[in-house]
Amino acid sequence: MLLVQVIVVALVIWGIWHNVQKAVDQVQQQNFSFQELRWPWLVAAGGLYLLGSLPMGLFWLRLMRAMQQKPTTWSGIRAFFIGHLGKYVPGKALVVVLRTSLVQGESLKRSVVATAVFAETLTMVSVGAVYAAILISLWFSDRQILLWLAIGIAVAASFVTLPPVFRKIVLILKVAKINPEIAENLAGLNYPVMAWGWVANLIGWTLLGSSLYAVMASIPDADPHLASFTQMFPLLAATVCLAMVAGFVTPIPGGMGVREFVIMEMMAPVFGPVVAVVSAVLLRVVWLFAELALAIILYGIPASPPTAELASAEIPPAEEDPAQNPA
Question: Where, by residue number, does the polypeptide cross the bilayer (predicted)?
Answer without folding.
Answer: 38-61, 112-139, 145-166, 187-208, 228-249, 270-301
